[in-house]
């Protein structure tokens, strides 16, 4: 008889912690992957002056530039944690104040593009990364999904600053199990709130109550306690 998900959780957590330990050891030894800059995106025409015959000055040695990174996020986070002196990217470990993630929901759905034309059926051939990202199906079901997401959530904690927070966008398929993993990684007391996003779209059915909301788990890296001192004035 196969194990239930509750029985599988200790193994999932143990394997996830071991993978994170290997990744951090590799980063600390200087063997992490580096990020490669493929293109520099100029500011919009409203501020760049490109459409007025003027070329904006771009300082490639500028201290910070916003980055749009394409790739498997577990590899991307290794690059961010390690930094890259050749490209001027310092380690982002403990320096990020806010993370929002919208991972797959373990919905068993395939979101890859299929286009049907008269007498033609076209299937977009995704890259390896796109296969992983857009086919929300998992070899061993929810167990594989939880094994995938645990080390990623743990690396996100490494990136967060002491005042940092994370918002995890999830839904009913697997949210309750992800919450358990988040409690293990961040600590149960660091959970701040469960935010409900209710939407009007979606199909109606007479078989069960309509599923018309997603959940955002709001968690902080460290609990900050504020002391408020008030003074009363005597009349």
Automatic annotation (TrEMBL):
Documented EC number(s): 2.1.1.-
Domain of life: Bacteria
Boundaries of every DNA methylase N-4/N-6 domain copy: 96-222
Any one GO MF annotation of this record: N-methyltransferase activity
UniProt keywords, alphabetically: Methyltransferase, Transferase
EC primary class: transferase
Gene Ontology BP, a term: methylation
Cited Pfam families: N6_N4_Mtase (PF01555)
Family matches, as InterPro entries: DNA_methylase_N4/N6, DNA_methylase_N6_adenine_CS, SAM-dependent_MTases_sf
The name this protein goes by in its record: Site-specific DNA-methyltransferase
Organism of derivation: Arcobacter sp. AZ-2023
Family designation: Belongs to the N(4)/N(6)-methyltransferase family.
